[in-house]
Amino acid sequence: MSIAQNPLSVEVTLPREDVALIAVEGYLDVDTATEFQHHLANQLHHGRRHFLLDLSSVPFMDSSGMNIILRVYQEARGLPGSVHIISPTPAVRRILDLTGVSITVPVSESLDEALSRVDAHQEDPVETAAQDGQQT
User: Fold this and answer.
1) Per mean pLDDT, which range of 3-17, 60-74, 108-122 is the poorest?
2) Which residues contact residue 91 at a Cβ distance below 8 angstroms, ignoring those fewer than 6 apart?
3) Residue 57: which residues within 8 A CB-CB, separation 6 or more?
């Protein structure tokens, strides 16, 4: 049985205008990573700055999936924006922890928790800009 028989399903909803909730179902690996990347790139193109990645239905993720998450994290930071992982399965959480991705990209247990982190993140750039203004 090839991995190609385990298709990736990606559903995008918009809890807020600049926030994309991306629910992923299936294996996130070398065979499916390009499709995942296209969904993220499409949301970036449409002006989304915050990405909530629901990985609760991803039984397996390899380095291809992690690289895409880290890439969108870097792009979102430059907007400024953010990336949050929601409810990864135990196997995926273990990979995120072992590789240190969970230190860089926040992991939340619920959509509400991730949205709260988005709200907190949106306050940070304002404070940073105010501090930069005071220093000059």
Assistant:
1) 3-17
2) 59, 60
3) 23, 24, 25, 26, 89
| Token duo for residue 132 | 């930069």
Q: Under a CB-based contact definition with an 8 Å cutoff, are residues 37 and 68 in contact?
A: yes
* pLDDT score at 5: 58
Residue 102's Cβ-count burial label (10 Å; 0-12, 13-18, 19+) is: middle
Question: For the chain, where are the alpha helices, taking DSSP H only?
Answer: 33-45, 63-77, 90-99, 101-104, 111-135
Phi and psi at residue 6, to the nearest 5°: -110, 80
Q: Is the peptide bond before 80 cis (omega within 30 degrees of 0)?
A: yes
Q: Where are the domains of the chain?
A: 3-135
Q: 21: helix, coil or strand?
A: strand
Largest pairwise CA distance in the chain: 62
Contacts of 27 (CB under 8 A, 6+ apart): 3, 6, 8, 58, 59, 60, 61
* pTM tops 0.90: no
Cα–Cα dist 116/136, whole Å: 31
Domain spanning 3-135: CATH superfamily:
STAS domain (3.30.750.24)
